Protein: Branched-chain amino acid transport system ATP-binding protein
Amino acid sequence: MEPLLSLRDVRAGYGETQVLDGVSLDVHEGETVALIGRNGVGKTTTLRSILGAITPTAGTITYDGEDITELDPVKTVKLGVGLVPEERRVFPGLSVEENLRLGSYGGSDTENRRSVEEVLDTFENLSRRRESRGVDLSGGEQQMLSVGRALVAGADLLMLDEPTEGLAPLIVDRVAELIEEINDEGITVLLVEQNVSVTLELADRVYILDKGQVVYEGTPAELDEDESVLDRYLGVSV
Ligand SMILES: Nc1ncnc2c1ncn2[C@@H]1O[C@H](COP(=O)(O)OP(=O)(O)OP(=O)(O)O)[C@@H](O)[C@H]1O
Ligand SMILES: [Mg+2]
Structure:
């Protein structure tokens, strides 16, 4: 089967600075694929290239059989690619419900779109706080709101950039469960993470990025058997 998303030898960067030095990876429909690596190796840049926020200088990106290498973010989102960015971007002065409703402007043409009410039904903790303003939410609640808004915008492929960063351990578990639920409902997930245990728990396959290149690809079970890999590229042992 053709991969849903495919990157081939993608090079990209900022001005004169090349960050991605020929990244190739595949994400199949229904998978949860994790992209991990140290700070500054190009994980966010990879997601930005897929979304079209930056245009690769070489290589190709295909989504659902279509070449999206040069597509801008509005068009990429319309095809059903969603991004929950690192900075979350919750609007502080708007309520939970208003923040969610923003997801319904623009967005995608996919059938995977959720209504604000459907998202509130899934995220009970947000439902309880539907009138609260963004500024009054905890980090975990903001993260869930940001994920919820992407679901309202509609995504067949949801890309999450370090969704558990800075969250308390209990909340990390809740966010991990949520990602699992979303994937179970048929949404393909591309997950950038620094939290190795969350990665190994959620991912079907893992890519490790180092200095703008994929240096390892394997299943969590394969990674478990070869602990030196994590040590070498992430400086962690599990
Ligand atoms: N807007 C930008 N302009 C110039 N350089 C940038 C920009 N954004 C990122 N970079 C540089 O590109 C490199 C890769 O950054 P990127 O954000 O992709 O890394 P990352 O793997 O997501 O790291 P982190 O784990 O810290 O989020 C870094 O050296 C970074 O300083
Ligand atoms: Mg990043």
User: Anything to note?
Assistant: The domain at 5-224 is CATH 3.40.50.300 (Rossmann fold). The longest strand covers residues 17-27. Residues 169-184 form the longest helix (16 residues). The chain has a mean pLDDT of 93.
